[in-house]
């Protein structure tokens, strides 16, 4: 059974930083592309970032480019999202996701809340 467990969310002031972690189990993590998504109240879930199984191919949605960095540690079965220069509009529940094929994300964590105060 695949499990993705996010941590690291919280309340931060605008301009601050947070690092999200996602610990994976029940899958061959080192061969799995991973991603981060977010969902704000009243909005649809949106893509934030993704990274290939070997740590290359990082990609970001335009609104976070230059501020967020995705990385992974295959020895720890963990993917990270470093978030800097946070803005109130970054406030959302952030979800970790695993892709069964290419970048088809079909397994999700429970989410972690990020709140950025102005």
List its salient traits.
118 residues, mainly beta, seven-stranded mixed sheet, four-stranded antiparallel sheet, 11 strands, 54% strand, globular
Q: How would you characterize the overall build of this protein?
A:
- With 118 residues, the chain is an all-beta fold.
- The protein contains no helices and 11 strands.
- It has strands spanning 3-7, 10-13, 18-25, 34-39, 46-51, 59-60, 68-73, 78-83, 92-101, 104-108, 112-117.
- The strands form 2 sheets. Strands 2, 4, 5, 6, 9, 10 and 11 form a 7-stranded mixed beta sheet that branches. A 4-stranded antiparallel beta sheet has the order 1-3-8-7, with no helix packed on it.
- The relative contact order is 0.31.
What's the end-to-end separation, in Å? Answer: 40 Å
Total strands: the figure is 11
SSE succession: EEEEEEEEEEE
Proportion of residues in extended strands: over 45%
Structural class: mainly beta
Main beta sheet: 7 strands, mixed
Q: What is the residue-averaged pLDDT?
A: 96
How much helicity do the residues have? under 10%
């Amino acid at each position: 059974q695949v499990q993705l467990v996010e941590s690291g969310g919280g309340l931060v002031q605008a301009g601050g930083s947070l690092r999200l972690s996602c610990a994976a189990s029940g899958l061959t993590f080192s061969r799995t592309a991973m991603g981060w998504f977010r969902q704000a109240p009243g909005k649809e879930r949106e893509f934030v970032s993704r990274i290939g199984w070997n740590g290359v191919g990082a990609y970001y949605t335009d609104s976070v480019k230059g501020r967020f960095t995705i990385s992974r540690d295959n020895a720890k079965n963990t993917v990270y999202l470093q978030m800097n220069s946070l803005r109130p509009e970054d406030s959302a529940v952030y979800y970790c996701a695993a892709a069964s094929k290419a970048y088809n994300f079909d397994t999700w964590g429970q989410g972690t809340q990020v709140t950025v105060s102005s």
